[in-house]
Write a structure and sequence with these properties.
The structure holds two protein chains of two kinds. By secondary structure, chain A is mostly helical. Chain A has helices spanning about 1-15, 30-65, 70-75, 90-120, 125-140, 140-160, 170-195, 195-205, 210-220, 225-240, 240-250, 265-275, 280-310; strands spanning about 80, 85. Chain A folds into two domains: about 1-65; about 80-310, MetI-like (MetI-like fold). Chain B is α/β, with parallel strands linked by helices. In chain B, α3 (about 105-115) packs across α4, α3 (about 105-115) packs parallel to α6 (about 150-165) and α6 (about 150-165) packs parallel to α7 (about 180-195). Classes of the chains: A mainly alpha, B alpha/beta.
Amino acid sequence: MESGTKAARLELVEEPVGELLLRRQWVNYKDVLLKLCLSLATSLTVLTTCTIVLLIGKEAFAFFHMVSIVDFLLGTQWQPLIEPQQYGVLPLVVGSTLVVVLSMGIALPLGVFVAAYLSEYASFPIRSVVKPFLEILAGIPTVVYGYFALTFVTPQLQQLFPAMEVFNAASAGIVVGIMILPMVSSLCDDAFCAVAPELKEAGYSLGATSYEVFRGIVLPASAFRLAAAVILAVSRALGETMAVTLAAGATPNMEWSFLKSIQTMTAYIVEVSLGDTPAGGVAYLTCYGVAALLFGITFVLNVLGYRWMRRTAE
Amino acid sequence: MNVTPSCALEVKGLSVSYASHRAVEEVSVCFRRHRVAAIIGPSGCGKSTLLRSLNRMHDFDPTVKVSGQVVFENQDLYGREIHPPTVRKRIGMVFQKPNPFPKSIYKNISWGPWINHMRGDMDQRVESCLRKAALWDEVKHRLHQSALSLSGGQQQRLCIARALAMNPDVILMDEPCSALDPRSTACIEDLIADLREKYTILVVTHNMQQAKRISDDVLFMYEGRLVEFGPTTQIFSQPRVAQTQAYIQGKFG
């Protein structure tokens, strides 16, 4: 047997190399062109990201030359556009936090419930009806959500809390919660569906009920992915702009109150970008300071989120 | 009710069908107590489908329809008043691929008894189950390590120990050695021989030599039908049906 293969190999070497085996016969210009186009498209996205980061970084650097970074991060007065100027960003951070907390308070429990129902209990026909509804919810333009908050949610809330201002953090938080619900439920649904069916079967084979399997096996096994879902949703809520600009107003506010008008980091950037602020001055540069902070936070959240997402995928 | 029925599980006219085809057709058989029955047959003949219908594991797939009866302790397991989780408590299952929970070795065993509020000393129960599954000596110093740190053969023995923890009457095993190396396979086979004293065991296997080694009875299935059921020695030495003979001689399958 062994000597046979050896002989065969020797024979192969002695034969002249077939022309068809040579690489140069087969180089195809279409392959080369395609590869070139694809790599160009890919490098374009990388380039865009780098440009934006560099631009924000450069302008933010200029801003922090004029305003101390400590005063910026720890200051409690935000009044960059009128005299006397104050550059403490915390009121904007508080505003964004209020919206994030309320929206997560709505989207997280609802999203987990929806996902648990869809992945564990819903029959296939129900699933195929509910899923498109969630996708429609995700497809509504954010400006519509803002308008909805202003003209529907706020008046309803004012019936309950007469002290509520026309622009307020509560209605913004609520609509952002509804807005990110599809994302949260879809990420949680992925998390639950990623749990191996063999594990669930093992649970059922021990006499567990569906609640016990969900509580004891599915939830712990998907914990990391759920945490990742929360982080990505927070990042999304933090970056939400249009709805909060419309619904929450433009009053930087250090008070932890849902009833009052606030301003989020994103809404401030909108205010400056609208064009009334002359380019080049400190006032104009403030928006890059805020953008750098916002980008820093969401970047960290996203990196963390995607890393945790992979952690249980193994 | 005091009379012990001679069958641990009696299957009467059982048919199982998926959305598109019928996987098990009119199977009737009596699995006797404290014996090991091997279910053999070519792939796709309905062995696993039959096995999974015996502890209602098809309940989670709405496309599967089961008709006929499975009688256990004088009750039809598909009767309307039956509580499926309790059925699975009494009729345990070990799967083809070792599927320990991503928890500690200890918790893998204790979870079942814990959710079912079974009384008694849990440490003791864990130890005795691991001893019965011939795993105790290998893991006694690391009970709180993840079960996923065990080798494939150890994981499968852990899954057997986990099934034993519920103190079932019947244990269904679906090709329990197909993902294991020969040494682990031998270990599980010895284990099955030991467990026969206390439990009734049904093993699906595609390995005829294994069926010959471990079983008291053999059920041969072909295309969803029961072709022949009888004592292992008889099936392997003088099968009554020509099809059985052809299969055990390796002429098809």
